[in-house]
Amino acid sequence: MRPTKTEFTQRCRTFLRLLLAALLTLILSSSLVGCFNSSSKQDPGAENPGGQDPGTTKPVEVKEGSIAPDFEFITMDGKKGKLSDYKGKVILLNFWASWCGPCVNEMPDMQRIAKDYPSVVILAVNRGDSAADAKKFANDKGYSFIWALDEDSSIQKIYPSNGIPYTIVIDKDGVIGTIYVGSASDMYPYFEKAIKDAGATK
């Protein structure tokens, strides 16, 4: 039996609702997600209000196109370093925590970048873990990053963000090229484009 006009209309509406729901799911799944301090999500290239230049009262704006503020850090094996130690190289600066699922999920893509682009410096700064938890995580995973601690939140004051993972790609001249707040299911294309735009080559 052929459906009546009313039944046909209802079926069309149901189909359109299902189609719309599927499209919304696809759109949302492609957005960057992370462990946020607020409910809002930021897109690739989101600007950061910035922090304060160490040793001065001059505010520093962390945004694409600006010079990346320098900072000192302690690696998980106790060595001292500075961001400026890597000037002349492309840097992928990543802020993470072991309890942040999106942070952990994107690390294999960061490791692929480290393998495919060995000249790129991957500096992973822990934010929010105890030193013991951060070290255990790093040792268990075995990724070839430079693992840094921020126990006193001094780096976070210079590079504040609404959430993590928070990734900044810096070019060879120390200029911020790309900022990502949040993560996607496959971050490798994002990371690869950002480091290539910053001048990285295989």
The helical percent reads 25-40%
Rg (CA only): 21 Å
Count of structural domains: 2
- State the distance separating the first and last CA atoms: 65 Å
State the helix count. 5
Biggest sheet overview: 7 strands, mixed
Helix and strand layout, with pairings?
Elements: H1 5-29, E1 35-36, E2 51-52, E3 59-60, E4 72-75, E5 80-82, E6 91-96, H2 101-116, E7 121-126, H3 131-141, E8 146-149, H4 154-158, E9 163-164, E10 166-170, E11 176-181, H5 188-197
Description:
- There is one protein chain.
- The relative contact order is 0.20.
- The chain has helices at residues 5-29, 101-116, 131-141, 154-158, 188-197; strands at residues 35-36, 51-52, 59-60, 72-75, 80-82, 91-96, 121-126, 146-149, 163-164, 166-170, 176-181.
- The protein has two domains: 1-30; 35-197, Glutaredoxin, CATH 3.40.30.
- The strands form three sheets. A seven-stranded mixed β-sheet has the order 5-4-8-7-6-10-11.
- The protein is elongated, with a radius of gyration of 21 Å.
- With 202 residues, the chain is of the alpha+beta class.
- Helices cover 33% and strands 21% of the residues.
Question: What is this structure, in a nutshell?
Answer:
It is built from 5 helices and 11 strands; from the N terminus they run H-E-E-E-E-E-E-H-E-H-E-H-E-E-E-H. It is α+β, with helices and mostly antiparallel strands. The longest helix is centred in the N-terminal third of the chain and has 25 residues, at 5-29.
